[in-house]
Amino acid sequence: MRATRQDCFAGTPDVLKDERRQQTVIRVLGIEVGGEDFVTMAGPCSVETESQLMATADHVRRCGARILRGGAFKPRSSPYSFQGHGLKGLRMLARARAEYGLAIVTEVMSECDVPMVAEYADILQIGSRSMENFSLLEAAARSGRPVLLKRGMAATVTEMLQSAQLILENGNPNVILCERGIRTFETSMRNTFDAAAIALLKQISHLPVIADPSHAAGYRDLVPSLARIAVAAGADGLLVEVHPDPDQAWSDGEQSLDFVEFQTMMVSLEPYLSLRSSVRSTSMDAELTEVGG
Ligand code: PEP
Ligand code: MN
């Protein structure tokens, strides 16, 4: 017999919407993820140099981003590629926060590094390759920092929710789910952007859901379209790679937007975001009508 939708999510009760929990709103440095505002997190794939990071932070903030991303620990296909600056990178991120008032999201790859990364970051990113590293998830949960959980590149929605459930069970209610594309038979993009997963997650889970159009697309000219699709699918925000000179980037240059491209994308999102606000207020009116009878 075919498993029903309920069967798929039976093992993850804490992440599902119920009467008590309709929407989790995560507050970091005065920013609310999962609330009314659409939150853009942007920055370079890797923290490279002070000038690269500062220039990017300044630019993305001017364009409306509220959170700065940047990897100090980098999961790479080859162990001989740049692995990130580690602590030096974390310190650069903290200086960018002090200078520009952006919150910081950065990846933690190892359980041992959790206390150090949590000391500098406002949000801990669990990368796609680590979604099923359960001891890392437990350590990240116990740090008390909000956790941005990326979908594994071969993970089902159910498996992603199981990882989120584990974080909640370890005493941390602040999980942001991130759709970043999955591996399929399609090879003309780096990954296949699963917009349906965003719509489904928004329907069933109270956790905030964001999209990473950069890793989904793999090519910068596709990123703005996927970002617009994410807004239409109901995402609470975006995680986007931006670099002052993408062709010289130390990682993921092909999918990173330059400053003009990022600005253009942010402007192009505006009509979709106003539509989002009106759709959200209409559905809230409907809920209120229902409650009020
Ligand atoms: C990243 O955000 O730079 C990254 C490595 O992402 P993912 O884990 O989705 O591949
Ligand atoms: Mn990257």
Global shape? globular
* Assigned CATH class: Alpha Beta
CATH architecture: Alpha-Beta Barrel
The average pLDDT value, as a whole number, equals 95
Largest sheet: 8 strands, parallel, barrel
Predict the CATH topology: TIM Barrel
Set out the fold topology.
Layout: H1 5-8, E1 26-28, E2 31-33, E3 39-43, H2 50-62, E4 67-69, H3 87-100, E5 103-107, H4 114-120, E6 123-126, H5 134-142, E7 147-150, H6 157-169, E8 175-179, H7 195-204, E9 209-211, H8 213-217, H9 223-233, E10 237-241, H10 259-292
Parallel strand pairs: 3-4, 3-10, 4-5, 5-6, 6-7, 7-8, 8-9, 9-10
Antiparallel strand pairs: 1-2
Bound molecules: phosphoenolpyruvate and manganese (II) ion.
The site of manganese (II) ion has 5 residues, from loops.
In short:
This protein has 293 residues and is of the alpha/beta class. It has helices spanning 5-8, 50-62, 87-100, 114-120, 134-142, 157-169, 195-204, 213-217, 223-233, 259-292; strands at 26-28, 31-33, 39-43, 67-69, 103-107, 123-126, 147-150, 175-179, 209-211, 237-241.
What do you see in this structure?
The chain has 293 residues and is α/β, with parallel strands linked by helices. The chain has one domain (5-292): TIM Barrel (Alpha-Beta Barrel), CATH 3.20.20. Helices cover 41% and strands 14% of the residues. The protein has ten helices and ten strands. It has helices spanning 5-8, 50-62, 87-100, 114-120, 134-142, 157-169, 195-204, 213-217, 223-233, 259-292; strands at 26-28, 31-33, 39-43, 67-69, 103-107, 123-126, 147-150, 175-179, 209-211, 237-241. The strands form two sheets. It has an eight-stranded parallel beta barrel, surrounded by seven helices. A hairpin with a 2-residue loop joins strand 1 (26-28) and strand 2. It is globular. The structure holds phosphoenolpyruvate (PEP) and manganese (II) ion (MN). Manganese (II) ion binds at residues 45, 215, 241, 251-252.
